[in-house]
Structure formats: structure tokens, C-alpha cells
DNA sequence: GTGAAAGCGCTAACAA
DNA sequence: TTGTTAGCGCTTTCAC
């Protein structure tokens, strides 16, 4: 029924071990032998059994994508990353599992243990804010499980992918300043997320670079959700000198800001310019369409997984790669009248 | 290092086979023995190796969630279903893989073969429109792989979960009629999706039941995307007798309709009532917030997987369960003035 | 109701 | 560069 490694060996006239060597791309096989075996595998449509490989060997050819189920950014962000990770896994004949964790609460370390003990996971892809959880990283280290990070805060000795979010945020705010805005507010994301810190830092840097003061009352806390954008906007709209532009740390909060503007009759962008970050599908679906920064999530997932696999397959070390961003200037920002 | 079944056996003073019997919930074990073994497993923190079980036995304790990568509904829909499937799998100690397919193009059957041959998948959860692909279903049958469907078109001899979408759509349109609307248009979804058919059928039924004519020029084709909602709305807005209400077959298209209304200066709901279907997060984030039908995707994923596992574990047959819907009446619909 | 032996398909550690 | 032997941790088959 099933074509086994042994069958390929017999058909080729070599030992099972040699076929195994070819399968695992070990260098110590004569090129002629390798070609013969490869040809037989192909023609016999041989497919190795992951179960047998996992049981006998030290590798499982399995990676897991971990994400936080509480403080998750928009689900579309995670879905795109997942697709990217899957792309890379398929290209290298690895399988992927998905593993939601609840970072608040203590069970989440046990889930790591289970993943390692049960499935012998070879490596994991970490999404924010998991990328910076010291307990999690320590546990992975204990288990000897490799990992790649997406947008990690620490960038030293880390494998994965990141964007220069600070510079991107700075560019966005500089754009607002170029449109004549001076009273520019910022809605911050969840406090300990790297994304919040970078985007806020970029905001401040741009103001400072333009010789504008950083007014603390123009900086309000959010938590990356639509609702928190609404709350933040309401607070900003009660200020004596209302901001003429608001930079929200992500698109969801920007949507909340625009919703609130509608609520009190402010017209975007005439009365208020709004911009976000991420370029989720929503950005083009809002009215007016949202000025934001494009973050290529799927590509980031793909690259992170690729670096992880690079490392697992012993081909080089796995690096931290930077991915470029793109400003998306749309209809929600406009020049300040007068 | 690892606690094996044999270790549990030794600690309990029974044979490995007996421990295996307990593990697999086989009936032919004396209750006292079973308790003893269970206790030992617990205290020794025994975790069976999926690889070994898969290799030796006929089951893999693995299910896959399949989805279409081309005609996919909103990614948030799939993400929620995935979470639900995962919930059920964890509750029954099964693992889940995700498997995107491209239904256009022919490779997708090979991917099924790979899933079965490589991973010995025990069963799959099918999402629309995969639920009704005859080739896919036939292939699964060939392989003897069980499946559960989410919102399948055929409802006979099928395991899974569905909602009465036709009735829900009818209720929505009836609500519009109750508000005084008579010129009610409908934006249809992708032609061969069950969701499109049911929602359109509900629309027509409600009109007919109210003694209103079904005007073909008020029914325009869409494809479940925001952009197609825009196109459809533009078409409807050029009609001599513009509709006073538009029922789009999903929230994304409804958002497109609202966007277009904005574009040409129509005010929702004063000049136009709009409603959608699904109650995605977007529905509450639009301005004005969208009247729609709540479809509990995560719960549907959970239930479908649960029925699948029920079937796999031989406890009963697995049924097709119906899940209730809920109308969400929000700000995008209002009484017709005059 | 329980156990002994064999083997799932592959890789490890050695040997040649 | 290639082959041999043993066994990964479990389930199967068959015996008792």
C-alpha cells in the first residue's frame, strides 16, 4: 500500500540508510547514488512518514506558530502571518501547528511543555507580544527549541523579521506637519508592546525634529482596539485646543477616532486629519479612506519562518531581517486650512 | 527522560497493553485496574507520544481544517472558526492542522492525498465553499476520512453545523419592510455559495410574503468583497427609482455600499437604510453602525469539530446541528420618512 | 479481563 | 562512501 523507504532502497539497490541519507540531504552521498535514489523516490511517489521520522529521529519537521489570545492585535494580522508561515513551511516540507496562548494566567508555559514533550516541535514562530516574554523565551531555551520572532523588541542575537516602525511613524507625523498641522495628538497602543513604544517614539522624534513641542495632553493611552480609540478621541476632543490631527498607533484605533469624529459632527479630513498604522483591509474601507503605513504581515510571517527553518536545517545561522515599509497616503489626511 | 507507557505499566504492575487499553478508553478493563492506571498516569504526568501512536496504530489523533484560499470569505470569519475548531480539539486531546486549498486549479486534490498519506489525518472540518465541492468530498470518501461541514448546502446525511440563513435574511428584510421600505435592493454574494442562495431566497420570500414584487433590477451580483459592494451600489444608485434600502449578503459588501453612499453624498440611514450579514467586528465600527445578523463563527467551528470527534471516537454518529441566529438592529437602518 | 510477541517506518550509533 | 543492527513508543494480533 504505502511506499516505504525500504521499498525505494530495494528498487535502487542500496541500503535503507543510504536512502535515508538522501532524504535528509546529508552531504556524504555520492552524486550518482543520490540521483538514482532521488529518481526512484520521484517515480515511486515516495512520501516519508512524519510519524516514523519523528519517532525514530531527533527532529519532527514540525514548527508551531504561537500567538497571544488575550492581547491579540487584529485577527486579520495574525491570519496573514499564519498564511506566511504556512507558505515557508510548505516550501521546506515542514508542517505547522497553531498554538494560542493566554499570556495572562500561568498555564501558558505548560502549553509550551506539552508542545515540546508531545509533538517534539523543532521550532516556533513568535508573534508580538509573545516575542518579548522572558519566561516564555527562557522555557524555550530550556527545551532547546529554536525560535524566530516577528517584530521583537530586543534585536540582538535574535532570529526573525522587523520593520523600522519608529521611522515609519516619524514619516507619517512629518507628513502631517508638512500639511501644516501643529497640534498633532497621538493615541498610544498597549503599554508594553514594542509597537507602541516605537510608534510613540517616532511621533515624538518627528515633532522635535520640526521644532514643535511634545505636549503630554496630546498623548493618550489606548489599547489597540477600536473601542479604546473611541475613548481616546473623546478625551482629545474635550481639550481646549483641540488637535487638528490625530495619529493613532494602529488602524483599529484610528477607526475609533474617525467614528467619534462622526459622532460629534467633525468632518474628516476638513476638521480633523486622522492616520493609523498597519494598513489593514479596513483602511481602504473606511470613509474617508485612511492614511496609514503598510505592514506586510504575510511576508513577515514567511520571512520569519524561513529564517527559522534556515537555522533548523543547519544552513547558516538564521538572521534578523528588516523589511521595508510603505506610507499609504489616503483621504483621511489633508492640509490644514488657513 | 520521557515517561513512557511502559513506565506507567511497571509502576502499576500491569502489562503495557492494559495501560494502552485504558489510554484508548477501551471498555474491557476492570474498573479497579482502570482507576489504578489512570492515577499512575496522572501522578507520573504521562503524555502519550502522538508519533508513536500514529505509527503503530490506525489513528493519528489529527484533524485538519480546510479552507479555500481564493474565494475566502473575510479572514476574520476563518480565524474565528479556526479558534473554535481548536477549542474542540484540545478538549478531546486531538491536534489540528490548517490547510488552505486553492479550489481553482487542480492541485488541491493532491493536497488532500498528501494530508492523508503523510499525516494519516483522521478527519477534516470543511468550511464554505469547500463543503460542497463534489470532487473533494469524493476524494475524502475514497480515503475513508471523516468530515464535518460548516454551513453545507446539502443537509442530508451530513455531519456539521448550520444556521437558518434564509429565515435570518427574511427577518432582516421583513424588518426593513416594517420600517416602511418598499424599494429594497439586494446585493448577492458569490454565485455558487450556499450563503448567497439562502440569503437571496430569504430576501425574496420576505418581499413576497409582504405582497411586494421582486424587481430583478434591484438584485445585483456581488462577490462578498468590499469592492464588489461598491460596484453594486453604484449600479443601484443609477436606477431611476433608487432603492430606499439595500440588503447586502454580507457585512463587507454592506460596508462597500455605505462607502459609496458617502461618496455620492447620501446620508445613511436618512437617505438610505443598509444592512449586512455576519456581524463581523466591522459592523459596530462603521459609521453608522450596521444592522446585520449575528453568525457565531467560533461556536460553529467548535460544534462542527465536536461532531466530527464524536464520530471519530465512535460515540454515536455525529449529527448536523442547527445554531440560532440573532438579529442585530443598529443605526444603519431607519424608518422611511414620510 | 489480561498479557506476550511482533512490528509500524524510520534514524542512531556503530562498523566496514 | 555505504551498510548493519538496534530500537524510538506505541498498537496489533493472538493467546490465555
UniProtKB/TrEMBL annotation, chains A, B:
GO molecular function annotation: DNA binding
Domain of life, per lineage: Bacteria
- Location of the HTH lacI-type domain: 3-57
Identify the InterPro entries for this entry.
Answer: HTH_LacI, LacI/GalR-like_sensor, Lambda_DNA-bd_dom_sf, Peripla_BP_I
Bilayer-crossing residues are: none
Q: Which UniProt keywords apply?
A: DNA-binding, Transcription, Transcription regulation
The protein's matches in PANTHER family, at most eight in alphabetical order, are given as: LACI-RELATED TRANSCRIPTIONAL REPRESSOR, LACTOSE OPERON REPRESSOR
The protein in question is named LacI family DNA-binding transcriptional regulator
> Per the UniProt entry, what species is this protein from, by scientific name?
Rhodanobacter geophilus
